Amino acid sequence: MTHRINSFDEYKEQYEKSVTNPESFWAEVAETFSWYKKWDQVLEWDFRKPAVKWFKNAKLNITENCLDRHLETRPDQTAIIFEPNDPEAPVQKFTYRELHLAVCRAANALKANGIKKGDRVCFYMPMVPELAIGVLACARIGAVHSVVFAGFSAQALADRIKDASCKMVICSDFNNRGAKHIPVKNVVDDALKMDCDSIETVLVHRNTGDGIEWTEGRDKWWHEEVDPQSGDCPAEVMDAEDMLFILYTSGSTGKPKGVVHTCGGYMVYTTYSFKNVFQYREGDVYWCTADIGWITGHSYIVYGPLAAGATTVMFEGVPTYPHAGRFWEVVEKHKVNQFYTAPTAIRALMAFGDEPVKKYDLTSLRILGSVGEPINEEAWNWYHETVGNKGCPIVDTWWQTETGGIMISGLGGLSPMKPAHAGYPLPGVQLCLVDNEGVEIEGNDVEGLLCVKFPWPSILRTTYGDHERCRTTYFAMFEDKYFTGDGARRDENGMYRIIGRVDDVLNVSGHRMGTAEVENAINEHPKVVESAVVGYPHDIKGQGIYAYVITTEEVSDEDAFAKEVRDVVTREIGPIAKPDRIQVVSGLPKTRSGKIMRRILRKVASGDTSNLGDTSTLLNPEIVEEIKSGAKQ
Ligand code: PRX
């Protein structure tokens, strides 16, 4: 595979080239893929609309690139290693030839069930091979996948199904996750009772074999539909700008939005970034512990690694089951070379000390990756020293659902490293920091709002069904710039350090959540009049959720009430959004225009009440004392 950068000097050269002549830079990278027809123009863009087209009029199918072209060069190489939740259960391996066959069969089953190019298919599944196979089967026939993380509630699933008018849901019967046994199909049944009229078929993968309810005519078994199919399924010819998938993510306002990625640019960028950030070499075994329900799983378990011809590990379980050394046991077992996980997992495992790590032979590890939230120095050092034995470079990769691929990161082993700093932008990524007025802040040793001023190939194209929302959220804040929602620092050497969100978006264990979304869920409790949610520093999760709640009547048993509130949030969104701390208050600090002053709420939640700033402009300054004295720690 070409286009792997081999030194930091080469990175600088490539970066320079990508900025001075982006079109020829990306055309050269794109040349290494298979296309049915090449582009007429590399890039056409206008951030004001926004309208971005990469590889205009080019034709391709991403699965030709992830599968077919490897059949000539590496048919018997392992494409996917599946490590099940139960360490005693058999590992499954798919060579590229086997994966190709499985995807073609599944694609034919989708077609036989009326799915065609452009139709939306929702996935609500555990991390089993059928999820990757199903997603690729959609891409094979040009259907658009919308994977919903299987920890979301029936309500959240129904919202997403309706927003994209999905025609089919693919799920499992049950899901094994650690010691939990989760009735996944049951959640789908509940969701489909909520006016999901567009759904015609539910395709059920038999995962555990436990009994489930069955709706005749609508529900079908995956194995009955897929197994008899032919293994020959010609790939649909897709335009580079045809939709590949929708993935829902939270913003500061309203319901989660469906971020749309398209075929050509996404393929080129995820593959290029995968090879360079992880310095992937032929024969390496790469493991990303994310769930395919999030963008990290889409780009760096499925598409990037497979297009690069890599061996990618899929793990069904959780880091601490059946013991706190599970990750390291798996690394030893499969001789993993690149390991990519989230700071929250690192912090959780760090709490168990070094012993569970030291038990295993981790000498195969070459590169360690981090993603999802800022990694604090203590966790960085532990990762580096204990897991990496000081010999593995850490790549702290900053990116977003909307960016499709890694934007800021070291290139494993080539770039300078600094704890808690994501580092330098990847080739093709033109960053800038701006002040609140959108004026660019030049030079180094500065801080500001992180924007991108030029398109990269895997930038989001729209938010599904609501292009205006895409424009106002990302492109209207500052003229001609994509606004990330993050604040960042550029140090004296030009390395970036991500400070965190500057909007009302929380990052809980690396999962994005809008405060408004959680508040709306809490407000569904019949006794809740109003609520306000803020984040506060949490040792393991990065951020915890602190909810201030006004009730219709006095609450006599606060613990019981808190449980009820958590249950409501679990029902509306899912357990990941449950508030850690709930404080009943008689009012919320509001400005004269009625806006909640979150600054004060954040300070109280984080236990920092020494300087709350000027509260005299509040409509109800007296409330601050009450909130302070009742703060939950
Ligand atoms: O705040 C940043 C944080 O996660 C946000 C994006 O979340 P999501 O779309 O769910 O994607 C997560 C996985 C790519 C960003 O706006 N974030 C992500 N990676 C990092 C990070 N913050 C600091 N350092 C990172 N490496």
TrEMBL record:
<dbReference type="InterPro" id="IPR000873">
    <property type="entry name" value="AMP-dep_synth/lig_dom"/>
</dbReference>
<dbReference type="GO" id="GO:0005524">
    <property type="term" value="F:ATP binding"/>
</dbReference>
<dbReference type="Pfam" id="PF16177">
    <property type="entry name" value="ACAS_N"/>
</dbReference>
<dbReference type="GO" id="GO:0019427">
    <property type="term" value="P:acetyl-CoA biosynthetic process from acetate"/>
</dbReference>
<keyword id="KW-0547">Nucleotide-binding</keyword>
<dbReference type="InterPro" id="IPR032387">
    <property type="entry name" value="ACAS_N"/>
</dbReference>
<dbReference type="InterPro" id="IPR042099">
    <property type="entry name" value="ANL_N_sf"/>
</dbReference>
<feature type="domain" description="AMP-binding enzyme C-terminal">
    <location>
        <begin position="517"/>
        <end position="595"/>
    </location>
</feature>
<dbReference type="InterPro" id="IPR011904">
    <property type="entry name" value="Ac_CoA_lig"/>
</dbReference>
<dbReference type="InterPro" id="IPR020845">
    <property type="entry name" value="AMP-binding_CS"/>
</dbReference>
<comment type="similarity">
    <text>Belongs to the ATP-dependent AMP-binding enzyme family.</text>
</comment>
<keyword id="KW-0067">ATP-binding</keyword>
<protein>
    <recommendedName>
        <fullName>Acetate--CoA ligase</fullName>
        <ecNumber>6.2.1.1</ecNumber>
    </recommendedName>
</protein>
<keyword id="KW-0436">Ligase</keyword>
<dbReference type="Pfam" id="PF13193">
    <property type="entry name" value="AMP-binding_C"/>
</dbReference>
<dbReference type="InterPro" id="IPR025110">
    <property type="entry name" value="AMP-bd_C"/>
</dbReference>
<dbReference type="Pfam" id="PF00501">
    <property type="entry name" value="AMP-binding"/>
</dbReference>
<dbReference type="InterPro" id="IPR045851">
    <property type="entry name" value="AMP-bd_C_sf"/>
</dbReference>
<dbReference type="GO" id="GO:0016208">
    <property type="term" value="F:AMP binding"/>
</dbReference>
<dbReference type="GO" id="GO:0003987">
    <property type="term" value="F:acetate-CoA ligase activity"/>
</dbReference>
<keyword id="KW-0007">Acetylation</keyword>
<feature type="domain" description="Acetyl-coenzyme A synthetase N-terminal">
    <location>
        <begin position="11"/>
        <end position="66"/>
    </location>
</feature>
<feature type="domain" description="AMP-dependent synthetase/ligase">
    <location>
        <begin position="68"/>
        <end position="455"/>
    </location>
</feature>
